[in-house]
Amino acid sequence: MTPAPIDFDIHSIPARPAKGDRAAEPEHLHLDVRYLALAPADAVEQISDMDRFRRLFEDGGVDPELVAMTGSFVSPADGRALMRGWPDSDWMPLAEFVEEMVGSFETPQTWLLDLDRRFDRLASSMRRAARRAGAARGDQAAGEETTRQLVQISIYGDKQLSFTTPKGVQVARGCQGFEQRITDAETCRSVADFLANLSPDAVARGADLAKMVEEGVYKAHMNFDPEDLRSSVVKDYHALRAFYREVVARGRSVLVTRD
Description:
There is one protein chain. The protein is of the alpha+beta class. The protein folds into two domains: 1-39 and 82-110, no CATH class; 118-256, Hypothetical protein yfbM fold (3-Layer(aba) Sandwich), CATH 3.40.1760. The protein is 46% helix and 11% strand. It has helices at residues 41-45, 50-58, 76-84, 92-102, 119-137, 140-156, 185-196, 200-205, 209-215, 226-250; strands at residues 6-7, 37-38, 110-115, 159-160, 162-165, 168-171, 181-183, 253-258. The strands form three sheets. It has a four-stranded mixed sheet with strand order 3-8-7-4. A hairpin with a 2-residue loop joins strand 5 and strand 6 (168-171). Helix 5 (119-137) packs across helix 10. The chain starts with 5 loop residues before the first strand and ends with a strand. This is DUF1877 domain-containing protein. Residues 1-23 are annotated as: Disordered. Pfam families: DUF1877.
């Protein structure tokens, strides 16, 4: 019987300020490596292409400059201590590898976008807003597929992230089981343009609770106040638009994960 995958999760790590210099420590630096969802010890110890796995982080590494508003901090050393507390000590090689990998970043290129499932409501609202805008311009049919793709990519990412172990291809997933996807810099520019061309008012008008319930959107069955729903969706829209604007300004790609 093949054991179920186990998630190795270092939630976040702080920057490394000069020794004793508390003032130099940036606020809420967040680095999430939940996509290290591997089968247990035997697969971890037998990864056939460790160099490829290492390059996944070093050549397309996660940018620790990304600011997250919330999150607990666990240093690489704390991560190892946590691993030592696990009953299966065979996980230690993975903990050591992650500590080494995290400490090796020099030229980060990829930012992490870690979204709560409430962003499903924003996706639903943006689809309606974009369809209405297209209809007003008379190009609804021509732009429907592109709109759908850009909404999907903005919140769920583009290309599926996976890696190979002796047991086959493993799809990268977060601790909640959602696939994790990479969006390259060029596609991020398209996403940023799409978001910039949506108006907050249009997004607010797209926040239709009844439609969300029909679509099975996360927790849409809850009795939201319509104004609170619109306000929440617009707030998330502004945050997402600002994020992609900054991604484009810095020429980054994005790894999208969800919880």
